Amino acid sequence: MKIGLFIPCYIDAFYPEAGIATLELLEKLGQDVEYPLDQTCCGQPMGNSGCNSDAAAAEALFVRNFARFDKIVMPSGSCTHHVRDNFDAIPQTDEVRHVRENTFELVEFLHDILKVEAFPWAEFNHTVGLHNSCGTLRALRTASMSELGEKPFSKPMDLLKKVKGIRFVTPKRPDECCGFGGTFSVTEEAISARMGVDKVRDHHDAGAEYIVSADSSCMMHQQGCAERAGVPIRFIHIAQILNGAAQ
Amino acid sequence: MSNRPVNHARAAEHFLEDAPHLKFHDERLWDMRQKRDAQMHMLPEWQELREEASRIKEHTLAQLPEYLEQFEENAKKNGIHVHWARDGAEHNRIVGDILKAHGARSLIKSKSMVTEECDMRPYLEKQGVTVTETDLGERIQQLDDQLPSHIVVPAVHKLTSDVAKIFAKDYHTDPNIRDPHLLAEAQRQAARPVILHADAGMTGGNFVVAETGTFVVCTNEGNADLSATVPNLHIATIGIERLVPRMADLGVFIRLLSRSALGSPITQYTTHFRGPQDGGEMHVVLVDNGRSHRLGMDDFWTSLKCIRCGACMNTCPVYRRSGGLSYGAVYSGPIGAIIDPTFNERKYSTLPFASTLNGSCTNVCPVKIDIHEQLYKWRRVLVQHREIPFVKREIMYMAGKLMGQPKMYRAALRATETSLESLPRFALYNWLNPWGKHRELPHPIKQTFHDWYKKNRATPAATAPESGK
Amino acid sequence: MSARDTILQALRANRPTPQNHPLPPVATLGDLDASRERFITNLKILGGDVLEPVEGETLDQAILRRHPDAKVICSNVPEAKGTLPVERIKTPQDAATVDVAVVRAAFGIAEMGSIFLSEAQLPINSFAHLAQHIVVLLSTGELTANMHTTYQTRPEFKSARYGVLMSGPSATADIQGVLIRGAQGVRSLSVWFT
């Protein structure tokens, strides 16, 4: 199985350590991974803004980069959601369909495809609160949703529980959106920031030292809010913990 | 009516400045959501009920002309006068004419979102009819000259002290009352004489049963029943999408409505009107006002399934922190954001963007409207119709171009100064500036992932050439 | 063209394909327990109460015990005499003088603790709403399980012109979310089982 690694633009530019952890983790798990150097973006920012036709070039490039892989893996729920569910600015050729059907968010990939049983190298002696982005939660369905009353399950939690030393706390409103929302974060800046502060306070009040998430975009926003509001909490991508992050 | 796009962001900013109101609003609506969840957990058949409700509604909408005709025929048989209104103005004329024919000068009414849509009150008042809202929340909003901020709890953005101030002015109660019981009692005492002397009563209608010619009104305060049974003239204003085929279908909807709305099993009153009371006269005004047009919109027609429970508002993290009035429309919150643009695309062009697309609204919707997906689709439509700001459109155009060209993109990342050359820099910076207003920027890094990979992993053979295609 | 025809024509032109949206069969879901216990539990959740008879007590005495300050008690049932003959309630407004209205419900719903009243059970429809309090007689034999069984089996929905399901007394939470029982309709609702 040849895996193409997609690193979202904001991880590339702001959180390279999350990208490196993703790559190293997949390699530790014996996977044949390649990062095509010509990649840029999946097209999500344009798509979410309604400017769908402007996403065409990014989507076409994405397909050019990734069509030759068996599976495409990315440490981002919202990008996976875009590719899987909204990637339609370009004609839907067999190649495009192949790419869309074989794109996975990292947690899904580890949990559902590789079915990883253990991360023997991973230890994290901290109390964490898990943040599921709305993309992973309600679009990719990597965890049960509080609104539906379904039997509780959580793929990221299943993975994190295999890490030595880690402790969990649950905030009061675990499913509440943190307010990032892509361009929403600037066009509705006040609400967005307020939601972010409420989110980080909720985790902090629950006793979390770290917020862990499969989405760096949410955490970029939350971190910005926490730092400005003086909420002492740290942020870490799930790939870093599973890869055995230095603490 | 002004056509200027509603500035939701600015109204929201204003709402956020008032900490006590914000805190109460957010917590109160969240509590309603929690109570709704508790009800859901008590019913193992909850998802089946939602599915049933959705299918019944979709079926009914696809057969709406037939069911409307069936309702009309049965209602007439039972002695109900049935009227049809193409739009708000026609609705108001019809109601005005009925009142005139009876020499009615005072109208008491229970809550009806359709009459808000039609802006009926000012019309009737100009004709010399005194209109009194009898629902407590709606009355507070009437006295304060505001739209309802929530379709179920119209004054949820107000605190007891606000209500005390409003009542002091109109009911001459003590402005310092802080006990809601005293204020509710003041409303009861003020409303009673008005109800007893009213010439006509008006209600809305939550459900309309084609099979029997019945319409159903669900309330908690008893004011709709008072409005309908005390005066001998009862007018009901109802949107044409409120139909269900069979009496038995109500079982599904009544079980879902109040549980979704307030987290109570049922409203205190569920009233079935099938004909006028002895000595009385009953009129039903069926209102289109854009609904038949909406039925033809492939991506948006299912918004007509809405039973107006407000669950999407209660769960919406944006609504809870911005208040219903920030939407500047009769319908606020997520459902408002997908319905309002069908009334006026330009004015409400901002509302589908007043969302993070988190999808919680869709999950709580008792009739399974894919609200957040419709928000997403509305954004596309509004862009196609050029109803989004020029700067944003330009930025997306430029970003889209850049994202298709890896070399330019890399160059841009290395030197943001020289990037996006064809876009005036002030525009970009102005647009992105708000990020820093209440948030820090991400920390600077030593090396992008891309550069790290090239240094640590990549071999020339392993990667396709950047200029290959 | 009339408004009616304009609307119907637009709906016909715009509607989705009816064949794609068949009518599902009538649903009967959930708990089908029609017991008095379930009814009482739910009645209390919605703020209603049961008027339990004390040994040897008549209904009139029980009503006075529950509503000691009531001056005008008006009964529409033979089981209670009250203080005001029900024939005196002639117009809808007349009911405003009543402190306690006494009626018999056609049936009750266990799922909700609701009782059903129509013009067949009321001297005048406003009687159930203008009175300050209501006492409702209910036969245990007239309990139905839930809303599905209610609408499927009760004939009243196809005969009554006015039919109300009352679930506890009137209520509001419109001021700062505080639940207040006794909003604009009756301030209390008590059920007397027969």
Automatic annotation (TrEMBL), chain A:
Parts forming coiled coils: none
InterPro entries to which the protein is assigned, alphabetical: Cys_rich_dom
GO-annotated molecular function: oxidoreductase activity
Domain called Cysteine-rich: residue spans: 4-83, 128-221
Record-level GO cellular component terms: cytosol
Protein's name according to its UniProt entry: (Fe-S)-binding protein
Lineage: Bacteria, Pseudomonadati, Pseudomonadota, Alphaproteobacteria, Acetobacterales
Automatic annotation (TrEMBL), chain B:
Keywords: 4Fe-4S, Electron transport, Iron, Iron-sulfur, Metal-binding, Repeat, Transport
Family matches, as PROSITE patterns: 4FE4S_FER_1, 4FE4S_FER_2
GO molecular function terms attached to this record: 4 iron, 4 sulfur cluster binding; metal ion binding
GO biological-process terms attached to the record: lactate metabolic process
SUPFAM superfamilies: alpha-helical ferredoxin, NagB/RpiA/CoA transferase-like
Cited InterPro entries: 4Fe4S_Fe-S-bd, 4Fe4S_Fe_S_CS, FTHF_cligase-like_sf, Helical_ferredxn, LUD_dom, LutB/LldF, LutB_C, NagB/RpiA_transferase-like
Domain 4Fe-4S ferredoxin-type: 297-318
Short name of any one Pfam family annotated for the protein: LUD_dom
Keyword Ligase: no
Protein name: Lactate utilization protein
The organism's taxonomic lineage, starting at the top: Bacteria, Pseudomonadati, Pseudomonadota, Alphaproteobacteria, Acetobacterales
Automatic annotation (TrEMBL), chain C:
Domain LUD intervals: 84-189
InterPro entries: FTHF_cligase-like_sf, LUD_dom, NagB/RpiA_transferase-like
Transmembrane residue ranges: none
Gene3D superfamilies linked: NagB/RpiA/CoA transferase-like (3.40.50.10420)
Top-level division of the source organism's lineage: Bacteria
Xref: SUPFAM superfamilies: NagB/RpiA/CoA transferase-like
Protein name: LUD domain-containing protein
Organism: Komagataeibacter melaceti
